[in-house]
Amino acid sequence: MPAVSLVSGRDRLLRAAIELVIERGIYRATSNEIARRAGVTWGSIQHYFGSREKLFVAVLEFDFEFFLALMDDAIIVGDTLATRLESVYAVIESYYGRREYLATFQIRMSLLSDSKRVSDIELTTQRQNDMVNAGWLALVHRVLSTEDLGTTTPLVIYEMFRAVASRRGLMAHYPESVRGRTAIDDLSSFTIRAVSALLAQQGEIDD
After folding, report:
1. DSSP reduced 3-state for 182
2. Phi/psi of residue 102, each to 5°?
3. Gyration radius of the chain over CA positions
4. Residue 175: is its pLDDT beyond 80?
5. DSSP states along 51-96
6. Cα 10 to Cα 7: distance, rounded to the nearest angstrom
7. Fold (CATH) for 1-50
8. 108 phi, psi to nearest 5 deg
9. 48 or 118, which is more confident?
10. Which residue of 63, 65, 100, 196 shows the fewest CB atoms closer than 10 Å?
């Protein structure tokens, strides 16, 4: 008997959509190609999602849940603030440094340019941002062992880490002959040390 896949048709479609956007770009990731890659019929997209565009919205939700799980499951280690921040940065880079993030970025930008979808995707993005901010604040409070931070300082740290991680992730997928070695290779450790020093200087935490 042929092996039975334990992955649902819906999940196979989500993963196939991400793979095709990575390989070919969003405009060449057609419904037919996505269905073929997932090993299902074109009608499965209509059944599970209703349309190709709604499939892509579901991809954003699927990827978002992965990011929340990364933060919830993060293991923070280290006796110093700098080493604990390294654990936090690793969480950010494990999300923003993936090829899959480049795919979801393409999808989000495409949906935002569609006047028929922009209001829906803006609401989805705002809801996701609120949930990410809550998860991130909880994670930072674990690292700093204090609740007396407000929201500004943790969110500034998030934006700094995200900028570095996404840039490093982008550069990592350039051909070696093009990428070479740039200052971005050292930027993560520099950023971690800078954030640690700034927090200590401002008296945000006793290390």
Report:
1. coil
2. -60, -35
3. 20
4. no
5. SHHHHHHHHHHHHHHHHHHHHHTPPP--SSHHHHHHHHHHHHHHHH
6. 8
7. Arc Repressor Mutant, subunit A (1.10.10)
8. -60, -45
9. 48
10. 65
Rounded CA gap, 95 and 90, in Å? 9
Q: For residues 116, 119, 124 and 126, what is the CA-based torsion angle, rounded to 10 degrees?
A: 150
Here the tokens at position 84 are 């604990």
Question: Is 25's pLDDT higher than 70?
Answer: yes
Q: Exposed, middle or buried, 84 (CB in 10 Å: 0-12/13-18/19+)? A: buried
The phi, psi pair for 115, rounded to 5°, reads -60, -25
pLDDT in tens, 10-22: 999 999 999 999 9
Between residues 6 and 66, which one has the greater pLDDT?
66
Q: Which two tokens stand for residue 38?
A: 């997932």
Can you give the residue ranges of every domain in the chain?
A: 1-50, 56-201
As a whole number, mean pLDDT of residues 175-192 equals 71
Buried-exposed string 33-53: b where 16+ CB fall within 10 A, e elsewhere: bbbebbebeeebbeebbeebb
First to last CA, the chain: 60
